[in-house]
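Morning!

This is the sequence you dropped in the shared folder:
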Amino acid sequence: MTSDFLSNLAQIRKLNAEPSSPREFDGLLRSAVERATDARHTGLSLASRFTLAYDASHALALAALRAHGYRSEDHYLVLQCPTHTLGWPPDQWRRTANLE
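The structure's back. Tokens below.
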């Protein structure tokens, strides 16, 4: 799947075009799973659980972006791209990110 939205972001230098590697992609997925698992631990403070859940969501969104050959250092932008990298409407990927 290619996205005009992602291409446009690259043209205005909000995204950097960069080949992805299977090793990086697998590492991002592993990181997301570990953080999402840790976020479920009720013995942690709510702030810690939130940070872990946020980091898990970011790692998944970045993995999808990297699979399309792009990178961004802007966390907010990475988290806005699942609509264009996964083809999901925002309400679907927001529900999917729910850790309960």
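Headline: The two ends are 30 Å apart (CA to CA).

More detail when I'm at my desk.
O.
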